[in-house]
Specification:
Elements: H1 2-12, H2 19-29, H3 31-41, H4 45-61, H5 65-81, H6 85-101, H7 105-121, H8 125-142, H9 145-161, H10 165-181, H11 185-201, H12 205-221, H13 225-241, H14 245-259, H15 265-281, H16 285-300, H17 309-325, H18 329-346, H19 349-365, H20 369-386, H21 389-405, H22 409-425, H23 428-518, H24 523-541, H25 548-554
Helix pairs in contact: 2-3, 3-4, 3-5, 4-5, 5-6, 5-7, 6-7, 7-8, 8-9, 9-10, 10-11, 11-12, 12-13, 12-23, 13-14, 13-15, 14-15, 15-16, 15-17, 16-17, 17-18, 17-19, 18-19, 19-20, 19-21, 20-21, 21-22
């Protein structure tokens, strides 16, 4: 039952994400589909069914099989929304059959998605997953790049909840490759985060740290403070898992600086949770309980707290651990059972497994061996499948304790041998060294990049300075050239004016010299000249009176 519920919950929200595009597909196919869908949206499903039946008969008569399949898909959609699942399933299967026969893969894929949703509701989970895989296969083969990446993320989420690490890795790496090649920074960030979580869950903290560092490098190019907070907190979680609370504190402080500038209450509540788990790792149980209780209350006070039940469950699980350390076993069990209830709606199997393993350990300490063994046996398959060595270690340690209490010492030794083998694999010293080396390498690489960036900036600055100097020199040279040109033109013009003036003076002097050299003209010529001048003067100014003075002046 739990497995069925898991599949229903994890797929329900992921299926029919293309419902809007499916509506657009039908609306673009024929106006009758738009009319029918409008009738459905206006609350008249019977009118929509009538229109589609009539249109379907016409398409079938005309042998327009693609539109006929479209009418069947639309009918399936209408019957689904009116809770007639069997009728919806019938029309969707028929639409898929015709679309596949006619080679319309897009139409067939849309029907596959709808069929998967109905099978989920009918709790036929194997069939639901089969049809969703068909849809995902088409999307990865023929969809747009962003849709391909999003489908990879969805499939990875499905297999995470099914506890199939290899399939998770396959889709995450494929999605990351597509996101990088098409430059989708937000999707790259999400995939790096999912890879970090996956590697941390399978006890590969160095690989988890690498992916988180890649996230930080991406955020350096595309700043997003709230996402950066989450990365720092997840890195802190790696060090807490590896018993290094001092190193975790470093990243908590970096996250705290960013939280101060955030108005979003979710990062603040999350920071409180990690503060509580850090106090727990530092053996400060009482202080840890106070902080964790405040974090739990903050998550409950968030808008739509049901969306944050996963974090509430994690707070309760950490509270139970602190309460168990302080000997408050009844409170610890109550916290764990409440966490289990909150885990069910979202059913994150890793959280569920960890919760039940903690509950089994507490029951064992209370000598409730049978109840403890029951929980351990339920989770043994999941723990092995998860590839998480910490889960297996907790499981075998509790099993060994239970066998000792039952005086079954031979079986207890078998489990203790497994515990010893796992402890060697989980050697904290070597893991701490590996993490330290990786972090050191990343910090050195970061400094090198920073130095390289500064060098690039200095080179750019020097280049800009050089260009500025060149422009200044060119402008100065241009101004000097204009000034010199103006002076030269002025002096040349002045010289020409002087030369012209001297030439005029020379011409006048030569003319006067010629007149002097010739002497007085003959009397007749002189009289003629005088007469000519008098005539010109009179013509210009009119006749003048000739009085005695004028006559005397002439004489």
């Amino acid at each position: 039952m739990a497995k069925q519920l898991m599949l229903i919950i994890c797929l329900f929200g992921l299926l029919w994400l293309q419902a809007q595009s499916r509506g657009e597909l039908l609306r673009n196919m024929d106006p009758i589909f738009s009319s029918a869908l409008d009738s459905l949206e206006m609350g008249s499903p019977h009118s929509a069914v009538s229109q589609l039946n009539e249109a379907g008969e016409k398409f079938k008569k005309d042998q327009n099989w693609i539109k006929y399949a479209g009418s069947l898909l639309a009918l399936g959609k209408i019957y689904f929304q009116t809770d007639q699942l069997d009728s919806s399933l019938f029309y969707l299967h028929e639409a898929r059959r015709i679309a596949s026969r006619e080679g319309n893969d897009r139409l067939a894929a849309n029907t596959e998605e709808g069929i998967a949703r109905i099978y989920l509701i009918k709790k036929q989970n194997a069939l639901a997953l089969q049809h969703y895989r068909n849809f995902a296969s088409w999307c990865l083969r023929s969809g747009k790049p962003r849709a391909k990446v999003e489908t990879c993320i969805q499939m990875a989420q499905i297999y995470t909840r099914k506890v199939e690490p290899d399939s998770v890795a396959l889709y995450l790496h494929r999605g990351l490759s597509l996101a990088k090649s098409h430059d989708f920074p937000v999707l790259q960030y999400k995939l790096y985060q999912m890879l970090g979580l996956r590697f941390n869950n399978i006890n590969r903290p160095d690989s988890a740290l690498y992916n988180y560092h890649q996230s930080l490098e991406l955020l350096a190019k595309h700043p997003a403070p709230e996402r950066e907070i989450l990365v720092y907190l997840r890195i802190a979680h790696i060090f807490l898992d590896n018993e290094n609370p001092q190193r975790a504190r470093k990243y908590l402080q970096q996250a705290q600086k960013l939280v101060k500038t955030s108005t979003n209450p979710f990062p603040k509540a999350t920071l409180l949770y990690y503060e509580g788990t850090t106090l727990l790792a530092e053996k400060k149980g009482t202080a840890a309980i106070q902080v964790l209780e405040k974090a739990l209350q903050d998550f409950k006070n968030l808008p739509k707290p049901q969306r944050h039940q996963a974090m509430q469950a994690r707070c309760l699980k950490s509270l139970a651990k602190a309460q168990h350390i302080l000997g408050q076993n009844e409170k610890a069990l109550a916290s764990l059972r409440l966490a289990k209830v909150m885990n069910l709606p979202i059913f994150q199997r890793y959280n569920e497994m960890q919760t039940e393993l903690m509950e089994a350990a507490i029951l064992s300490s209370q000598d409730a061996v049978a109840a403890s063994d029951e929980l351990l046996m339920e989770n043994m398959v999941w723990a092995k499948q998860s590839e998480n060595l910490n889960y297996l270690l907790d499981l075998y340690q509790t099993l060994a304790a239970n066998e000792r209490k039952k005086k079954n010492y031979e079986q207890a030794i078998v489990y203790l041998d497994k515990v010893h083998a796992l402890q060697q694999q989980l050697d904290p010293v070597s893991r701490a060294s590996s993490l330290s080396n990786h972090e050191t390498q990343w910090e050195v690489a970061k400094k090198d990049k920073s130095i390289g960036h500064l060098q690039d900036l200095n080179q750019q600055k020097a280049q800009r300075l050089k260009q500025t100097r060149l422009r200044t020199a060119l402008m100065t040279g241009g101004l000097v050239f204009l000034l010199l040109s103006s002076v030269w033109i002025y002096r040349r013009k002045r010289k020409q004016n002087i030369q012209l003036s001297l030439a005029k003076q020379a011409v006048g002097f030569t003319a006067r010299k010629g007149i002097v050299a010739q002497g007085d003209p003959p009397p007749g010529q002189k009289q003629h000249a005088g007469h000519f001048l008098a005539t010109q003067f009179t013509g210009a100014w009119g006749s003048r009176p000739r009085g005695p003075q004028s006559h005397a002046r002439r004489t």
